[in-house]
Automatic annotation (TrEMBL), chains A, B:
Residues 10-429 form the Aminoacyl-transfer RNA synthetases class-II family profile domain. This is Histidine--tRNA ligase. Homodimer. One of its GO terms (cellular component) is cytoplasm. Its EC number is 6.1.1.21. It is an enzyme of class 6 (ligase). It comes from Candidatus Dojkabacteria bacterium. One of its GO terms (molecular function) is ATP binding. NCBIfam families: hisS. It is found in: Cytoplasm. It catalyses: tRNA(His) + L-histidine + ATP = L-histidyl-tRNA(His) + AMP + diphosphate + H(+). The gene is hisS.
């Protein structure tokens, strides 16, 4: 039987060229989080499904779970997101650990959704979170890191916008239009799908949770707002809410810190996770060729209650690899990465008598931190040069009779064409 | 309902202290492979199960698979090992790519086995392989990298041994005792379990594949050999086999290259994967408290045939995180890693009026590459110092009225007790 050699639907083979791009993104994530004092952790790949069923929402925590029944009959799922897992971890150590706790992780996830541009079944995410800090200083730091990550890619002005909102503002809206407390989760799920569902579908789902015609109209108006002024004119009753006050403070602070051009209040940013209960935000690509939400985050103080813990103040964010890559492509920010020659050395075997000397020279150069690829079979110097050129290596090292006699090696720099002889001390093990 | 906050059986939560150890191991892996000119790739987390059923062996490719049935009814499994996946990837590009191809990856895997010391259900592995190189120079490089990885941890002399063997030697033995060709795979599976099964079980399984009493005895004797001399005395008919010739050449070369003290020929090293067909090896911890196989590798030219490709010469190795960690622990090689103070800066808010200045100073220091943790709420200087001490930060920065007035900040070095004032240019965004 012959097997197919293509990857499973919605997953991808990352050959080295692709891996270089992903690693560039991961390195930026790790670097920024580390500079802000975040510590790296990792959760298990699978968790009992109840963990995700609790509050991940109807898609992620439901039909999109990739589930496995183990031999003991236990049902586990590949993590579709990190927030429940990291909350589970933190709930173990919260009482005994110095707070605030700043954590980040870079991990792979799976969701059984229909693959489409920007969405794979397997994907990688950075998750960074602060636990144990209630005030908006923590919100501010989470937003700043999101901005610093984006700015690390050196994007052009106006290329992205971070849209800020607050779940307590939505809660207040729903209260003002008489949505019952126990229908709030469903109302927010509906609002989160505003762009994806048809108007009749939206109305039907809203009527089911007791929204009257006025309420439906108000929600519709709210979802079309794009400015603070419009919000205050249309919904003066929301003016003095905590949500709006916090959003205003955050915008003022971010502006003082130099991020004013990149941020904007946007009342229809919802975030489709049931557990958010404070500030929420999403970063959007403004490139006409790639208008999309890149990633987002928010506050979720209440999630820890699923473990029977007291509320643990928590706020975080989760950028994904695929959308960040689309952003970088849309603005041509990967071009340099793809064209650079690598500082690698190629050390071919041009004279069989000196195989051991070649090995020892390679060993010695590597111990200095150099990247040295050995030729595994006899090759003519000319062919060696064209091999190195094809593989975009910068240096070729030749070790033939003449070199051995003079205790040197010939170093060719393919980027300049220069060639020199370099002495080495004896090649002995 | 209250959920448990412990991880799923056989998986682990890596809190930052644990993550630091794993990352140290991963960084060594990546560093050594990179210096040998290997390029990093990554395969999908899941593959159609047929890929592993083909040649991963009765355990890994059978009852230990963690399987998922997707909504289209397709059955996939979380990868239990990398070799079939990377072979699948390479088979796509083999014809059109400059050879040899040197690849490595660091990835997570799952096997539904009984968790025990050194074996978790989820684990991480380095896989490094050369494709498209037939001769023993490639085998040699794979062995050298295994040794360099081990030596990078700076272990004491005699702490580990790399045991070398050759599948063609085993094949020759089986032929000499009249095991039929189509029973060789099963015979090797039985030999691989020699230590784990009882003698009657071994005999029963061997009889089933047609081994007579002489053959069973011979296999028993072979499995007890530990020296080249013993092998030649007991099995003179194996003297001129390719397997033995290759093993000898490899040992001579490795000795010339300075690795002689770390390597040894060992005829009963089998490796429990059906696909191996040339040199095989395993690295063992020699610590009496942790006598175990750490990892291994070998040549598997024939595996690509499952994709209907021509044989692709392939040789590789796969160290795992858990056994390497046990090795490091057994020799006390993690002690230094665990006790060091981090070069982090703590910048607390000691005067609310200067919140924005603190933010801007933190931003400026981070842009110089420093790791700066901001205090999120007002704190007294004394408490700030004890917080930093508890978290093992090296530096504390204080920005109060006096400092602001003189355009400086106070820098305290907790490792020396020194304190100085450092001037900054204006703190504006």
């Amino acid at each position: 039987m012959k097997l197919a050699n293509k990857p499973y639907k919605g997953t991808a083979d990352w050959f080295p060229q692709e891996f270089t791009i992903r690693k560039y993104i991961f390195d930026v994530w790790r670097d920024v989080c580390t500079r802000f004092g975040y510590e790296e952790y990792l959760s298990p790949l699978v968790e009992p499904i109840e963990l995700f069923q609790a509050k991940s929402g109807e898609d992620l925590g439901g039909r999109e779970l990739m589930t496995i029944t183990d031999r003991a009959g236990r049902v586990v799922a590949i993590r579709p997101e990190m927030t429940p897992s990291v909350t589970r971890m933190v709930s173990q150590i919260y009482e005994t650990t110095t707070k605030p706790i700043r954590y980040f992780s870079i991990a792979n996830f799976m969701r059984a959704e229909k693959p489409q541009r920007g969405r794979n079944r397997e994907f990688w995410q950075l998750n960074y979170d602060i636990f144990g800090a209630e005030g908006i200083s923590a919100d501010l730091e989470i937003l700043q890191i999101a901005l610093e990550i984006m700015l690390s890619f050196e994007p052009p002005k106006g290329s992205f916008t971070l849209f800020l909102n607050h779940r307590k503002l939505i809660d207040e809206l729903l209260r003002s239009i008489k949505i019952e407390d126990d229908a709030v989760t469903e109302a927010i799920r509906i609002m989160d799908k505003w762009e994806k569902l048809t108007l009749p579908d939206l109305e039907e789902r809203l009527e089911k949770i007791g929204a009257d015609q006025n309420a439906i109209e108000k929600i519709g108006k709210f979802m079309e707002l794009t400015e603070m002024d419009g919000l205050l004119a249309e919904f003066p009753e929301l003016k003095d809410t905590i949500g709006l006050k916090d959003v205003n403070s955050l915008i003022i602070s971010l502006t003082k810190m130099g991020y004013g051009d990149w941020i904007k209040f946007q009342p229809n940013i919802i975030r489709g996770f049931d557990y958010y209960d404070g500030m929420v935000f999403e970063v959007f690509d403004n490139n006409p060729s790639n208008l999309r939400s890149l990633f987002g985050g928010g506050r979720y103080n209440g999630l820890s209650s699923i473990f029977g813990s007291e509320d643990i103040p928590a706020v975080g964010c989760a950028p994904g690899d695929e959308t960040i890559k689309l952003f970088l492509e849309s603005w041509g920010l990967l071009d340099q990465l793809e064209s650079s020659k690598t500082d690698k050395y190629y050390l071919p075997l041009i004279d069989e008598r000196y195989d051991t000397q070649c090995e020892l020279l390679a060993k010695s150069l590597r111990s200095e931190g150099k990247i040295v690829e050995r030729g595994l079979s006899l090759i003519k110097p000319g062919k060696a040069l064209s091999y190195a050129d094809k593989k975009r290596f910068r240096f070729v090292i030749l070790l033939g009779e003449e070199e051995i006699r003079s205790n040197t090696y010939t170093l060719k720099d393919l980027s300049t064409g220069e060639q020199k002889n370099i002495a080495y001390s004896e090649l002995q093990s």
